[in-house]
């Protein structure tokens, strides 16, 4: 049985959740003024300061810290970021490099940290607009990661048995309920083909009827026969959907057998 695809409404207008507050800490007063004047709008609030110690108490409510990249003469990039992390562990940081500066330290730190980026500081309109784009990209990545973590946490706690199979067919996620239902430890399921959890007839049905349906953007619901690690088979009801990368989402519910019905 197929059901209509879910219609997802994406809100494109600005809202409180879309707004960004950036703290820009640079020595160059002209640049601070230029950034504040150019970037400030309904969705981006810019605060400025001359030094980070003066602003440590103001990091609450800040979505992105933009700062002159420290030099080894003053302090290392790692020392600087450690001070920031002590106050705001997950705050995105964008380091501004002087055009003549050696970017090696910043590049090394960016490669080893998920929420640190860098760019060459510039006074041109194009450079300042590029700064706007970098701020938004860094903050949106951080917010998306936070949303993904909360979503996975809710799936972990769900009573429904839920699993996600990558486009190649191997399971890349299964919550505890799914593992228990099929008699596996969760670690064992990672990398296991989804086909190993169903009988041959059910795999054929899913591959010929269900998967083409969800590939067209619909959801599929039907009954199949699951197969536990021990080889025991049992009737299940499946809701099958797909993600944008063609991964498959299985929601499996055990169905009562005739013997179960007779004992109730």
The span between the termini is: 28 Å
Run of helices and strands: EEHEEHEHEHEEHHHEEEH
Strand order of the largest sheet: 1-9-10-11-7-8
Helicity range: 25-40%
Number of helices: 8
Q: Could you say which structural class the secondary elements and strand pairing correspond to? A: alpha/beta
Average pLDDT across residues?
A: 81
Q: Which consecutive residue ranges, at least 5 long each, have pLDDT under 50?
A: 1-16
Shape: elongated
β content, as a range? Answer: 15-25%
Q: Can you summarize the main beta sheet?
A: 6 strands, antiparallel
Number of strands: 11
Q: Which value, in Å, is the CA radius of gyration?
A: 26 Å
Short description:
Helix content is 37%, strand content 24%.
Entry keywords:
single chain; 264 residues; alpha/beta; 6-stranded antiparallel β-sheet; 5-stranded parallel β-sheet; 37% helix; 24% strand; elongated
Explained architecture:
This protein has 264 residues and is an alpha/beta fold. 37% of the residues lie in helices and 24% in strands. It has eight helices and eleven strands. It has helices at 29-39, 77-87, 104-112, 125-157, 176-182, 186-189, 200-215, 258-263; strands at residues 2-3, 20-25, 44-49, 64-68, 93-97, 116-120, 161-165, 171-174, 219-227, 233-242, 248-254. The strands form two sheets. The chain has a six-stranded antiparallel beta sheet. A five-stranded parallel beta sheet has the order 3-2-4-5-6, with helices on both faces. Helix 1 (29-39) packs across helix 4. The relative contact order is 0.10. Residues 1-16 have low confidence and may be disordered.
């Amino acid at each position: 049985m197929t059901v209509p695809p879910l219609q997802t409404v994406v809100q494109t207008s600005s809202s409180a959740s879309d707004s960004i507050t950036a703290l820009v800490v640079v020595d160059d007063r002209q640049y601070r003024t230029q950034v504040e004047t150019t970037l400030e709008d309904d969705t981006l609030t810019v605060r400025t300061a001359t030094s980070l110690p003066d602003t440590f108490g103001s990091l609450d409510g800040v979505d992105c810290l933009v700062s002159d990249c420290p030099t080894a003469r003053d302090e290392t990039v790692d020392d600087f970021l450690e001070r920031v992390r002590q106050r705001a562990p997950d705050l995105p940081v964008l380091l501004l490099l002087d055009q003549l500066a050696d970017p090696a330290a910043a590049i090394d730190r960016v490669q080893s940290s998920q929420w640190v980026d860098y760019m060459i500081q510039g006074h041109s309109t194009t450079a300042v607009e590029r700064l706007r784009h970098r701020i938004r990209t860094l903050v949106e990545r951080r917010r998306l990661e936070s949303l993904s973590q909360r979503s996975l946490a809710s799936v972990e706690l769900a009573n429904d048995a839920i699993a996600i199979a990558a486009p190649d067919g191997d399971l890349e996620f299964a919550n505890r309920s799914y593992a228990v239902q099929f008699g596996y430890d969760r670690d064992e399921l990672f990398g296991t083909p989804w086909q190993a959890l169903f009988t041959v007839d059910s795999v054929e049905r899913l591959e010929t009827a269900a998967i083409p349906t969800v590939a067209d953007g619909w959801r599929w619901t039907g009954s199949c026969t699951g197969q536990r690690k021990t080889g025991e088979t049992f009737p299940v009801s499946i809701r099958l959907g797909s993600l944008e990368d063609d991964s498959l989402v299985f929601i499996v519910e055990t169905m009562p057998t005739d013997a179960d019905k007779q004992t109730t």
